[in-house]
Amino acid sequence: MGKMARQRREKAAGTIKLAHPDRSDPTEDTLLQMARERRLFEQADADPRNKTTSRSTPAANSEDEDDAADADADADADADGTGELSPTAERIMDSLLWTVSLAMLHFTLDVVVQHQYGIDIDWHAIILRALQAFAALLVLFYVLHAHPSKPAFVPRLPLRYQDPLRQLLFFTMAVTSGCYLIYITNTFGYLAVMKKAPTLGCLWVWAVIELPLGPAAASLVICAAFLWQGGYDIK
Description:
The chain has 235 residues and is an all-alpha fold. It has a domain at 87-229. It is built from 10 helices and no strands. It has helices at 2-14, 31-37, 40-46, 48-55, 58-81, 87-116, 123-144, 159-187, 190-210, 213-229. The relative contact order is 0.07. Residues 53-69 and 71-79 have low confidence and may be disordered.
C-alpha cells in the first residue's frame, strides 16, 4: 500500500508544470494606490483617535527611543572599531614615534663617545640627558615636521611658501650641525665633544631625514667639502 501511494504521489508531482511567477506590473490599481487616491493616509493622520492612541502608549514610544539609542550606540561602536585616529592624535603619535627613535640615537651616541675616550660610563647621566633630549626633540618635531593635518608651521604665511621654508630650515640645520660636529671632534677637547656630539649628531640625522633626496645629498656634499678643505678627519 505504501509503495502504491508513493507511486501515485510521484505521478501527480510529475504532472505539475513548472513555470516562473508572473513578474509583470499589475494591470489594475493596487491597494496602496487606491489608498493614496482616496487620501486615506491623510484622513488617518487627521483622526484624533490616532493621536490619542499615540499619546497613550508611552511604553511603545520609549521602546522606540531605546531602539534608536541602541542603533546610535552600535554605529558609534562601529566607528570606533575602525581604529581611525583624529588628525591631532595621529600627529602626536607620529611625533612620539620619531622622537623616541631620535632619543635612542642620542643615548647610543652618548655611550659611544664616552667609550671612545675610555671614560667610565655614567648610565644615570646618560639616561637623564636622553630624557632631556627627548623632551626638546618632541617639541621641535611636533612644530617643524610636515604633517597633513597642519601643513603650515609659520602663521600668516601663504601655504605655497611653507614647504620651501621648511626645507631651507632643515637644509641649514643639516649643514650647520654636520660641519660643526666635524669641527669640534677635530679641534675641541674630549669634554666638549662628549657634551655636544650626541646632540649635534641627532640634529644632523634628523635634518637629513626630513629633506628630500636632492637637498639631503647636497648637504652631505657640503659637509664632505668642509671636511676636505679643513684637513679634518673622521674620528
